[in-house]
Amino acid sequence: MKPLPAALMTAAVGIAAIALENPLWPAAAALSGALLLTAAGPPRRAYAAFALLTGVTVFLLEPFVAVQGLTTLWRGPDIPILDTQITTEELAYGAAAGLRIAAAALAAGAFVRLADSDLLLRAVARVAPRSAMIASLTTQMLPALERDAACVLVAARTRAAAVSRPATAARLVGPLVGMSLERALAVAEAMEARGYAGPARSAAPVRGLSRRERVLTLLGIAALALVVATLATGAAGFRYFDVLDDPWTPAATAGAAGLAALGTAFAWVVRWRP
Amino acid sequence: MAALTFEGVSHRYAAGGRPALEDVTLSVEEGELVLLVGESGSGKSTLLRAALGLVPRFHGGELHGRVRVGGLDTRDHRPGELARHAGLVFQDPEAQVVSSGVLAEAAFGLENLGVDAAEIHPRALAALRMAGADHLAGRATRTLSGGERQRVAIGSVLAMGPRVLLLDEPTSQLDPAAADDLLRTLLDLRTRHGIAVVVAEHRTERLFGVADRVVAMHAGEIVVDAPPDRARLALRGRPWLLPRAPAEPPPPARPEDPAAQLDHASKRLGTTRALHDVSAAFERGAVTAVTGPNGAGKTTLALALCGLMGLDAGMAAHRGRAGYVAQDPGAYLLHDTGLEEVEYGLANLGVPAPGRRARAEAELERFDLGWAAAEHPRDLSSGERQRLAIASVTAMRPDLVVLDEPTRGVDGRRKRAVAEIVRGLAAAGAAVVVVSHDTPFVADAATASVRLESGRIAPQRVPAPEAVHA
Prior knowledge:
The structure holds 2 protein chains of 2 kinds. Chain A is mainly alpha-helical. Chain A has 2 domains: 3-117 and 207-271, no CATH class; 131-193, no CATH class. Helices cover 70% and strands 3% of the residues of chain A. The mean pLDDT of chain A is 89. In chain B, the strands form 4 sheets. A 6-stranded mixed sheet of chain B has the order 6-7-8-3-9-10, with helices on both faces. In chain B, helix 4 (102-112) packs across helix 5 and helix 5 (117-130) crosses helix 6 (146-158). Chains A and B meet through helix 5, helix 6 and helix 8 of A and helix 3, helix 4, helix 5, strand 15 and helix 10 of B.
């Protein structure tokens, strides 16, 4: 798929997740992100696992680092640094923060899987025409991580590592990132060797947007417009502390439902086979 | 006229150590084919990178002397500008794929050169044809085998029409037919188009006789620069740099007591049928070579045999523990030192610490890597990484050892040592399977063979011997 429709839709999801306060928005964004990633096709497990892991981690940590909220649910023993008084407001804030992180990660993963990386590289070349390193890191790092993860797992399994154990798998993350960075550097070198950052550029002919991509672009524009309008009008305002607001305001409910519907429609059009 | 010149060039990487290049003076004329030989770490890859200005611009370090390509000084022109005159095919095909589609990959360099849009795809396709990769034009690069990737990498550089073509071990993953095709292409470029070609190779069988000059490097210095007949005499003391005589392939495998086997195994990868109803068995105490053209399904067979890839149909089974070393050794580098890398598998097996260390050290020594015990694995050269990856698996004494292209980047002398180790593993009772296009290595190491073509077991046949021009 051309990068434009994917960029519009995933940007809408990402902005909704990060910038809109009412928890219905990050929830709708997470749902949309998950649907987009599902529609994008494999390999997607690593993105989903990363989103879930970071989201759950943030949700679990938040109540122990925040010292806010009036509705106490549980009070634990005194532990230095940690706040062991857990409030409903802290839990709600933590849940929303977890959803924000997860939705943003899912949207990023969906963009990487949906957008044609060759066209993306071409777009980056317009923005950073002198730096093969920037182009390589922005367009190759995540796909490289994806491929290398499979190779590192094989290499570890053949050396009797129990990669299904979280601790073992976690120890492989450092070498994996190192390997992918090394590969991204090698790709940057190969790009320079093939004339990237040279004095002249042209582009091979590219077909125009297909009918499907035009529909997806319209859906992406609608989603982005909805999110930007909500942001501009302040219709997604919400207070977590000292006591929770009611999230089910008509504007927030309609807006979040609208984003979820547009995300669902986008995913459906991506998967649709005539 | 000289297409490429080095004048008193020395280079030391930023990390320090001995100079990678030491007072190198070399001139390559238009229409000249130069074969560059030398052991791993002798400076061949650095020399090729310096020709395009990637050393020091990309890798840092100090460069003294002057390098000119197409009359341009690499100190005054960026690699992106020099790419108009010189093209470099890197050693590692995995690390130079820029695009997700094969045609886009071949078009990438042309776009960077500002070639007219209408000409880009026809030129890209023509170059892929020259590299024997035009049938791959519609494929995604991630679905290619190692050899197919190498062909695409060569085609992508040829597309740019360089006047100086630099190739770093271009045949290391090519099947014999593809390597012969590449040689024909290089000779054609030299003779008909007057292009200067410099090829760094460990597999010198094809090129030694047809090159105009042979340049041998040792510890960053040029030690021989002569026509092939004189170079052959000068290199008598280093026979591993000389071409090997053609060897008979090992006989077909007919195991009586198989330690590993595939039974009617089928596997589809995307739209490609990687294995189709394959039945094959591998015996304890034998070294079985799996051969066949690029993309024949050899790696899929290797992974399935070790239980590292599921099958769509049929069965794969092996006795005892299996150890697999992939084509790309980079994935095996998970630790901070060479010793820890070899100890890793032993630790996972529960070998106690004192014995573990001694076993790991002995294994490093066996692979001529004792010096690398305290080195960071990612600081090692391609051939050294390959040997370290193999050592990290063989240290565990697996009952089934599967090595996928184990001689990639490994120089002739150490290749013989690897062959010896492989035979030793078999003699100790392991079933050893070697996936390789390196026919001299296969002849040295293997006692039996299985041939795959298009995902099926093919009848054994004696391949055309690699050309040796004595």
